[in-house]
Write a structure and sequence with these properties.
By secondary structure, the chain is an alpha/beta fold. 38% of the residues lie in helices and 14% in strands. The protein has twelve helices and nine strands. The relative contact order is 0.17. The model has no long low-confidence stretch (mean pLDDT 95). It catalyses: carbamoyl phosphate + L-aspartate = N-carbamoyl-L-aspartate + phosphate + H(+). Pathway: Pyrimidine metabolism; UMP biosynthesis via de novo pathway; (S)-dihydroorotate from bicarbonate: step 2/3. Belongs to the aspartate/ornithine carbamoyltransferase superfamily. ATCase family. Its EC number is 2.1.3.2. Heterododecamer (2C3:3R2) of six catalytic PyrB chains organized as two trimers (C3), and six regulatory PyrI chains organized as three dimers (R2).
Length: 310
């Protein structure tokens, strides 16, 4: 696919499904331009952003912070633990307040899937919403940074074989990625515990045993075991070592990967669980690059949102 040079404008960023192929490729292109030093020319003197994180985060929260600061956007700090959320303020009322204060864009991570529906339906809330992760639903900015990283490596998606491995049912990253990778022409495969695999994923790819997949794919996308979303039964099903041996990218499996194939992980990584410690920063790993690309693709997202509002 050829990347068009047209500037992208978005009202909100809620899920990858709502993006056209052209918007996806435009955001990747713009992320790469920002990485190479491109500057944003804002249409107003001052923009305000706030990052409302109701679930823990290091990468998404801090890379939106960095992206906002690189673009010259004023960041209104918010800490749910020291806000009126502690007095019973709802998400709706927090966002309504930020909008009333003049915030242009709210980046939100929340445990409820599709938490954003009531916000975008509101006639009073005026700020744009960027989904920084909704429960086990979607993680669109992570998907875009993953796509940017794959595109940087291979220059295309068509025909690439991508394995998504691990705790798929609980992973918003997996949901966003399987949808977009399939749409962009990649061949998607799945592996991991069958209890964390849902037959509905078959529309995007096929489940194969990990030892069969490891030597045939271009991208090994390993997923974090999401303890915080598990029932007690799911937690008791595996030891760390047992999971690593059965479903992890061990050193032995890593040695069977194709020449030129890469390892990805949205992070944080449970080292020696999903992925052998030595592979995290190894030569085939693009995990550090994914984190760096997160800043630039988020700059592209913010630019597209704010350009649309000016
Ligand atoms: N990949 C990701 O979403 O990481 P954080 O939870 O640290 O934001």
């Amino acid at each position: 696919m050829i990347i068009q040079s047209e500037r992208i404008s978005l009202k909100h960023l809620l899920s990858v499904e709502a993006l056209s192929d052209q918007e996806v490729m435009g955001l990747i292109r713009r992320g790469r331009e920002f990485k190479q030093g491109a500057k944003w020319t804002p249409e107003k003197d001052q923009y305000f952003a706030t990052n409302l994180f109701f679930e823990n985060s290091t990468r998404t929260h801090k890379s939106f912070d960095v992206a906002e600061k690189k673009l010259g956007i004023e960041v209104i700090e918010f800490d749910a633990g020291h806000s009126s959320v502690q007095k019973g303020e709802t998400l709706y009322d927090t966002v309504l307040t930020m909008s009333a204060l003049g915030v242009d864009v709210a980046v939100i991570r929340h445990g409820d899937e599709a938490y954003y529906d009531e916000l975008i339906e509101s006639k009073t809330i005026q700020c744009a919403i960027v989904n920084g992760g909704d429960g086990s639903g979607q993680h669109p900015s992570q998907c875009l940074l993953d796509l940017m990283t794959i595109y940087e490596e291979f220059g295309h998606f068509e025909g690439l074989k991508v394995a998504i491995v691990g705790d798929i049912t609980h992973s918003r990253v997996a949901k966003s990625n399987m949808q977009m990778l399939k749409r962009l022409g990649a061949e998607v495969y799945f592996s991991g515990p069958e209890s964390w695999y849902d037959p509905s994923f078959e529309v995007y790819g096929h489940y194969l045993p990990l030892d069969e997949l490891v030597s045939m794919v271009d991208v090994m996308m390993m997923l974090r075991v999401q303890h915080e979303r598990h029932t007690d039964d799911e937690e008791q099903g595996f030891t760390k070592e047992g999971y690593h041996q059965q479903y992890g990218l061990t050193l032995e499996r890593g040695s069977k990967m194709k020449r030129g194939a890469i390892i990805m992980h949205p992070a944080p990584v449970n080292r020696d669980v999903e992925l052998a410690d030595a592979l995290v920063e190894g030569i085939q790993s693009r995990i550090v690059q994914q984190m760096t690309n997160g800043v630039y693709v988020r700059m592209a997202i913010l630019e597209a949102i704010l350009t649309g509002r000016a």
